[in-house]
Fold each of these.
Amino acid sequence: MNEAITLLVPIDSHQPIKLLQITDTHLGAQAAETLLGLNTDYSLEQVVDLVRRERPHADLLLATGDISSCGAGQSYHRYRQLTKGIADQTLWLPGNHDTVAAMREAAKDGNEMAGCATIGNWHIIMLNSKTPGKVGGSLSDKELAKLRVGLQQSREGYALVCLHHHPVSIGCDWLDEQKVSNAETLFSVLDEFTHVRGLLWGHVHQQIDQQRNGVKLMATPSTCIQFAADSADFKLDRLSPGYRWLDLQENGDIETGVSRVSGVVFDIDYDDSSGY
């Protein structure tokens, strides 16, 4: 398996590099399995249809964890099929519900687990914040070393760093217990490099757009259920599934937005407070 993939720069170098983030799909071992009443294959299909209408020519798809609800190999094979063709290349990283070995097996003939990509003057680094046996996240010494090396090697351009768990508090007490436990160490590494432009994650099933020291901090809706913002305990939001698009500019700027499915009724048990 390659350690990195290099994508072709668009013919017109003044055109932005087009990325998609699709996160927290929670696909079951079998097709049409449900999460709190929602068929997660169906909800992903609706998001992918939206992507095809709105952003049909992406360079790279980022899957930022919890691709599977149970870590089953079939989940990853089905994810590949459901997202086929929406981007030239795809990168995956694991979430707390994923199984890394199953991800690697499903991607053995592809680049999904490459860990990083260089596109034009941008370097995308995918970090593994999964902590075995725990819901919350942390970054191992190996991952932090990988980050530092990747940033050292990309000083001549710009960097976007991706992980699953959130590194900052978001105002949801129950979720903030699960954030990256050594986030201060993560930020101490990022602060050494002035070319880092974005930090992107999943896990929180909601949109977040903040800034820290000139770096965009971004989280993205799930393609299935949504978590209510500013909630002390587990609570669902009635917002629709969605995805994030990112345009990486030649000058280091990131233009980004979130788009959600509309006109589709999803069968979700909003009164279930048992969690996920």
Amino acid sequence: MTVQPIRLFGDPVLRTPAAEVVDFDKELATLVKDLWDTMESQEGAGLAAPQLGVGLRVFTYHCDGFAGHLVNPTWTAVGDDIQDGEEGCLSIPGLYWDCKRARNIVARGWDMHGEPLQIEGTDLLARCVQHETDHLDGVLFVDRLDATTRKAAMKAIREADWFEGSTPTIKQSPHSLFGGS
């Protein structure tokens, strides 16, 4: 098992958009395995490469009975239904807030061998795909919280035992609730 340290809120890599994967090679396969092993060791629903300090567009997921990985993902909402529920992040450990996401999505990308993939997700799987894709754009789920909740979240993060950064920042997502590129 190759468990890697997870980058925590305040690490600049979490705010940097990740590059498209262009080489579907042994290094990518190793990254996917490291993401998987680390995610599973923390009992996470998903983990994106920037959370391991790697600026590539790839993530793993394991939730609602579905498991796998997606390289260079895009997603679109199916319908207008919104879910508003508790969300957390391995890079913001132990803290959870309600966050709005599209309820139903279709995601497309590739597997580590360069074969096309499509994922249709509802509820938790849809939330996970949106959350992990946001990571690839340098966006964290706290950026999506309403102003009052975000203010409380920033206070809780600053007071967390694990937080060693400077003043937390908020970033605007390039994706609406109804589709991501």
Amino acid sequence: MGILANAFTWWNGASWGTMINSRRNGEEVGRDEAGNIYFRHRKDPKRRWVIYAGSNDASRTPPGWNAWLRGTIDDLPEKGLPPRRKFEQAPQPNLTGTMAAYRPGGSLAANRIRPASTGDYEAWKPE
């Protein structure tokens, strides 16, 4: 699919129109580890946007770049934020709908046996 898929779909990265507009009116300011490309408008630097590498999912934007996109910080994340500390975990995208999503013990998809009822539930009865 590749390049042709982007010609007709917006959910799989940028369409051709978005790429042309971004290159014409925007200035590329950086890329993150996932390959997302960040832009700011040439005439109005407060206008900022991202072109995702792959599916358009905002949860795939790292926290530092998210802060830059929203205008929380003015400098790029490398300059405007302190370096990541050793105890901080790397950010993860939203895993809902994937096989890595959280499934509680009673879930049918968890492939575990649901614990027996403890009898502490009392049904509501209208009076």
